[in-house]
Amino acid sequence: MDATFSNAQRAQVLTQALPYIKRYTGKVVVVKYGGNAMVNEQLKQQVMEDIVLLWLIGVKVVLIHGGGPEINELMDKLGKKPEFVDGLRVTDKETVDIVQMVLAGKVNKSLVTLLQKKGGHAVGLSGMDGGIIEATVKDERLGYVGRITKVRTKPITDLLEKNYIPVISTVASDHEGNTYNINGDTAAAYIAGALGAERLIMMTDIAGILRDKDDPETLIPEITVSGAEALKEEGVISGGMIPKVDCCIEALREGVKNVIIMDGRIPHSILMELLTDEGAGTMVVGDNHE
Question: Residues 143, 185, 264, 281: which is the catalytic one?
Fold first, then answer.
């Protein structure tokens, strides 16, 4: 035990978390997980611990994951070079098979196993299972990259009611049986909206929205939809952050209470965000948010 942190101090920390525990117990929180926090093994362990702890206090956690680095790794082994257009992976028939194998197979099941090892009860799904995500072609140039046309929440809510943590990979299908690669942030926004989630947590590998992208001290802790649009016009929100912020705005429009873009590189950032005053990252809220 850490001698600098007494039992009394530990108890004080827990009592300070009580109002936050009361706020989120029984509520749906969607976590979009990917990027650096997924590649770093120690951080992955801590993210899973955070999710299991939330689950144990009664939060209905839904984990939605990507797996870009693992997809690239398998493509490399197969001698296939990844291509991207506007930040989206060009996905031909062979690539969509690789995406399905990696996301719905290897990554999904490894996360389920890890959650169970930490003491949680988890079930892995893909967007294809139970028709959770229906999609169609987003852009002919991208091949089998999908635009979401429908979300069915029943397979997810059934698992939540049975006290499982649903772990969802972002592949989808259409009525003809075609498989589609879905952008993870987009899938998280639509699923969180359809579930009426209390909060959507977008884990990324930067501190949040920065007024100066090279200075973490310029983090913007909270931003409205109209404020985000203004920052896009100013060029403060640019590059890869634009689609991420657009997904946050889409989630709010779809019915999520608020969305946080969070630095997944910080240990236990999910607990810091949900159970302390400090928070971690940039919260995106509707213009009428009080």
Answer: 185
Length of the chain: 290
Quote the CA–CA distance of 208 and 202 in Å, as a whole number. 10
Q: What CATH number corresponds to the domain at position 100?
A: 3.40.1160.10
Residue at 266 is within a domain: yes
The structural domain count of the chain equals 1
32 belongs to the catalytic site? yes
244 as an active site residue: the answer is yes
**Is residue 13 in a domain?**
no
DSSP, res 265: T
The residue from 34, 66, 68, 208 that is catalytic is 68
258 in a structural domain: yes
Whole-angstrom CA distances from 16 to 82, 131, 163, 194 are: 47, 41, 26, 32
Residues with Cβ within 8 Å of residue 129, at least 6 apart in sequence: 155
Q: Could you give the CA distance from residue 90 to residue 198 in angstroms, rounded to a whole number?
A: 33
Given 60, 244, 263, 281, the catalytic residue: 244
Domain boundaries, position 209: 28-285
d(CA 62, CA 83): 30
From 35, 120, 143, 281, active-site residue: 35
Domain assignment present for residue 14? The answer is no
Task: Split the chain (290 residues) into runs of 10 and give each run's mean pLDDT.
Answer: 67 83 93 78 90 96 92 92 82 94 94 96 97 95 94 97 97 95 93 95 87 84 91 86 88 91 86 80 80
Q: Which residues pair with 143 in a beta bridge?
A: 91
Token representation of residue 270: 């999910």
Q: Is 68 a catalytic residue?
A: yes
Specify whether 208 is catalytic: no
